[in-house]
Amino acid sequence: MSAKLDFVARSEHKLVGKMGFRIGRTIGKGTYSKVCLSTNSKGDKFACKIIRKKLAGSDFIEKFLPREIEIITAIKHPNIIQVYKIMETQQVIYMFMDYCRDGDLLEYIREYGCFPEEKAKHYFRPLVEAVAYLHDLDIAHRDIKCENIFLMANKQVKLGDFGFARMCTDAYGKHVLSDTFCGSAAYAAPEILKVSVCLCPKLSGKILNAK
């Protein structure tokens, strides 16, 4: 699968080059996408998420991706991953965003151990400010976890990955509540796990669906 993705990416990088970007080494991989280090003509570094449409499936391309793009292009906050450019070809979608040199918070904790209280405060406050900003816009992230919290080179913390995010109001401003469980089971509250597993035992220990 990754070999096919690499082939498609290489064949379309010429278009990316014309837009002033160069795709470099792979720094992360997902089920149907990968993240590469990218630079522009000025030498600025970005993380480029490359999504192959065929691998992602029609449900993701037609429903979840448009929802994610609508949200990430409408938000701007110093503690949220900023997406600068989105390019789409017949087979691939390129998303150029902040490059977080120090990876995600889970990687950091695994390498350096648990945080002392003062350090935890340093990371927690900006995250709360980011979530408050989203809630003021009636946006629910729905998948906040260590893997989706990223560290910039200056130790600035940023919330990212809006794949499960959704608006909590419709086009008329009416509040719309979610009626399904979503996110990562390992981070779900015990009462949510209890209800979801009772409704569908197969959900135990797995990523929950989002609607």
Describe the structure.
About 35% of the residues lie in helices and about 25% in strands. Mean pLDDT is about 85; it is low at about 205-210. The strands form four sheets. Strands 1-2-3-5-4 form a five-stranded antiparallel beta sheet. Strands 6-9 form a two-stranded antiparallel ribbon. With about 210 residues, it is an alpha+beta fold. The relative contact order is 0.11. A hairpin with a 5-residue loop joins strand 7 and strand 8. It has helices at about 1-20, 55, 60-70, 105-110, 115-135, 190-200, and strands at about 20-30, 35-40, 45-50, 85-90, 90-100, 140, 150, 155-160, 165, 185, 205-210.
Largest sheet: 5 strands, antiparallel
Average pLDDT taken over every residue: 84
> H/E series, N to C?
HEEEHHEEHHEEEEEHE
Number of strands: 11
- Biggest sheet strand order reads 1-2-3-5-4
**Count the helices. How many?**
6
Radius of gyration: 18 Å
Topology:
Layout: H1 2-18, E1 21-29, E2 33-40, E3 45-52, H2 53-56, H3 58-72, E4 83-88, E5 92-98, H4 105-112, H5 117-136, E6 139-140, E7 149-151, E8 157-159, E9 166-167, E10 183-184, H6 190-199, E11 207-208
Antiparallel strand pairs: 1-2, 2-3, 3-5, 4-5, 6-9, 7-8, 10-11
Summarize the structure.
The chain is of the alpha+beta class and 211 residues long. Helix content is 35%, strand content 25%.
Defining traits:
211 residues; alpha+beta; five-stranded antiparallel beta sheet; two-stranded antiparallel sheet; 6 helices; globular
